[in-house]
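Good morning N.,

You mentioned wanting to compare the apo and holo forms, so I went ahead and generated the holo version with NAP. This is what I fed in:
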Amino acid sequence: MSYWPDKVVMITGASSGIGRGLAVALGTRGAKLGLVARRVEQLGELVAEIESLGGKALALPADVQSENSMRAAADELRAQFGPIDVLIANAGIGPTRDAAKLNAEEVANVMNVNVIGASNSVAAVLPEMIARGQGQLVAISSLAAYRGVPKSAAYCASKAAVSSFFESLRLDLESRGVDVTIIHPGFIKTALTAGRGAQMPFLMELDDAVKKMVRAIEKRRKRYSFPWQLATIVRAGMIMPIWMYDRIARANSFRE
Ligand SMILES: NC(=O)c1ccc[n+]([C@@H]2O[C@H](COP(=O)([O-])OP(=O)(O)OC[C@H]3O[C@@H](n4cnc5c(N)ncnc54)[C@H](OP(=O)(O)O)[C@@H]3O)[C@@H](O)[C@H]2O)c1
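and this is what came out, ligand included:
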């Protein structure tokens, strides 16, 4: 029996890239979707596409930085489709920035969207999941969570925070029937990586990446890092001496 039919799933950052790809994949598998992002027009087109494929979806225009907007979006989804079974906290931004041009406002913005946005999303759905004794929280973090990489200070810090945040939640929630799945993707072809001149090793097509993420969510994996080749290299980086890590990381900047 498939995992998705009639599950109510809230996806943030659904208007493009990974969120959009997950929405189409889950909509065609029978999930009832609440699609969160700021761009209303893109959400409307996505709802129409999912409905044309026989699925059910609701556009929930909202900025994840607003706790109130996220609560209102979750309330609207519940009113339309019933209790929320799965949250996919995917909304994120990842600017390239050399340390010499550090911009404090940009760092705060990345933290607000990637970390506070994920926290607001969880806060909007978790009390009900705990009350029902069931649910699943999914974080789309990044392999950039494991160690700092060049020209990505804010992004790496935000993704390390996201992974730690959800790991702590997992420990608190495992006795309460709420599962937590933390996904660490490598490079995927989306708007976030488009236009980068630097070489991105093991760059994946969106469809292939979406299939892998859907499987990891279905299996309720606690942590899923992919593609395995890059995940293995990144994990090796965790136990390397600093001089060795720095030499390799400096020579392999993934941002121009
Ligand atoms: N692509 C990769 O290689 C890669 C690798 C590892 C992890 N990731 C992570 O995957 C997630 C999705 O990225 P993507 O590659 O699919 O990029 P994308 O195509 O740029 O999508 C980003 C999504 O986040 C939404 N978003 C941004 N700010 C928001 C806000 N304040 N409130 C609500 N929604 C907001 C955007 O929608 P609106 O602009 O309409 O609001 C958009 O739907 C991110 O968390 C990213 O860090 C990506």
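The longest helix spans residues 104-132.

Happy to go through it together on a call whenever suits you.

Best,
F.
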